[in-house]
Write a structure and sequence with these properties.
By secondary structure, the chain is of the alpha/beta class. The chain contains 15 helices and twelve strands. It has a six-stranded antiparallel β-sheet with strand order 7-6-5-10-9-8. Strands 1-4-3-2 form a four-stranded mixed β-sheet. Strand 9 and strand 10 form a beta hairpin. Helix 10 packs parallel to helix 12 and helix 11 packs across helix 12. The chain is flat.
Length: about 400
């Protein structure tokens, strides 16, 4: 089967240009750093420094993480390097027969979105056209040929997240839980032995809830028992959105599973508890803070999700107007004073504060923070984690900071 390429440059989805030869990994292709320098998108010193600092990492990813180029610039350079057109796939409709050709795992793992089939040709948008495993996978699909297009990684991930929902398969787990002979005894079994099989429906449901929450960029997950069901809601951009409804009898087992992961007391159901655990989802590290409290219908559980791989933004990337950005930068550069950032959960308080730290973090300054919790580790900043049992509160931490500086 032929892997065709469409491009280069920027194309609309109506363009039908198809080029030969087959798209393969060309060792003689121009280097990405040279393309960036030749077009004036990056300077040679920055490119050489990126190669030296991260020799095993792709130079484009390093420059992007450092804020020296943006996603659009990187996509233009990769487009020229690979000979593939750049398209905006965010709003384009997808054909079900196309999306069914790849599994949820494949689409997420390779960041590839198949959106249409035209006369035996499958059109796909990819984030990385040089991934040999992806190209090998595409060659096994039951179509005559595959046409590759290039999308911004964030756009591809967005469409994949919208189309390939982890929660779409929860119904199978609910049915398995309902028909299992051990369904009524599962919660008791969890409490007595402290563990259950990894393929158990309850474990699969918890994993899928966490996976979808991370993909939806949810800051919190609320698992709430009611008189008729267990309601699951995600907090996205500060607002709660109902995403799933589970049977009532699954609630206790679900809470027990989460308590085990967070090393909490699974027998205690009357008093509020707090815990935390770590997980890896879609190759990304995730810290989860857990809080449980008793309600009249059972224990309500709230999970706070902290994506450790989430990039830190600069002030210029927060969407402030030019006037506001200039005024705010002048404020945070003042030699003394106080800045108060307030707002509901998920409104961007932590993002704004860390972007502010990024603005003032210099070798000639002593930057210290007092946090509860420390959500993201910030390079070269002295971060203090509150520990009330040990006597470290915001007040005692502040006194210590003032003594040290």
């Amino acid at each position: 089967m032929a892997l065709k390429r469409r491009g280069p440059a920027v194309a609309t989805l109506g363009v039908r240009a198809r080029l030969q030869p087959d798209l393969t990994i060309d060792t003689d292709r121009p280097r990405l750093g040279d393309i960036l320098v030749d077009h004036g998108w990056a300077n040679r010193a920055a490119v050489d420094d990126a190669v030296e600092r991260a020799p095993t990492r792709r130079i484009g990813d390093t420059l992007l993480a450092d804020g020296l180029i943006d996603e659009i610039t990187l996509a233009r350079a990769v487009s020229e390097q690979a000979g593939i057109a750049v398209v905006d796939i965010r709003e384009h409709p997808a054909q079900p027969e196309a999306t069914r050709m790849l599994s949820q795992h494949e689409a997420h793992s390779f960041e590839v979105f198949p959106f249409s089939v035209d006369e035996g040709t499958l059109n796909v948008v990819v984030a990385d056209p040089f991934d040999p495993e992806l190209l090998e996978l595409l060659q096994t699909l039951p179509v005559t040929s595959v046409t590759l297009l290039l999308g911004l990684p964030s756009h591809v991930r967005s469409r994949v997240n919208q189309t390939y929902r982890a929660l779409s398969e929860v119904g199978t787990d609910i049915e398995a839980f309902a028909v299992s002979d051990a369904a009524a005894e599962l919660a008791a079994a969890v409490e007595s032995i402290g563990t259950i099989d990894d393929d158990a429906p309850v474990i699969q449901v918890v994993n899928k809830i966490l996976t979808q929450a991370l993909r939806d960029r949810a800051s919190d997950v609320h698992i709430e028992p009611t008189d008729t069901e267990v309601r699951v809601r995600f907090r996205v951009d500060g607002a709660l959105i109902e995403v799933l409804s589970l049977p009532m009898d699954m609630g206790p087992a679900l809470v027990s599973r989460i308590k085990i992961m967070a090393e909490m007391n699974i027998v205690e159901r009357r008093r509020p508890q707090d815990g935390q655990f770590e997980a890896t989802i879609d190759g990304r590290g995730l810290d989860v803070r857990v809080s449980t409290t008793a309600t009249i219908w059972g224990e309500k559980t709230v999970l706070r999700l902290l994506d450790r791989t989430r990039s830190l933004y600069r002030l210029s990337e927060l969407g402030m107007s030019a006037t506001l950005s200039k005024r705010y930068s002048r404020i945070v550069q003042s030699p003394f004073g106080m800045v108060i950032v307030s707002g509901p959960t998920g409104s961007g308080k932590t993002t704004t504060l860390y972007a502010t730290l990024n603005e003032i973090n210099r070798p000639d300054m002593n930057v210290m923070t007092i946090e509860d919790p420390v959500e993201y580790v910030f390079p070269k900043v002295n971060q203090i984690q509150i520990n009330e049992p040990a006597g470290l509160t915001f007040a005692t931490g502040l006194r210590s900071v003032l003594r040290q500086d």
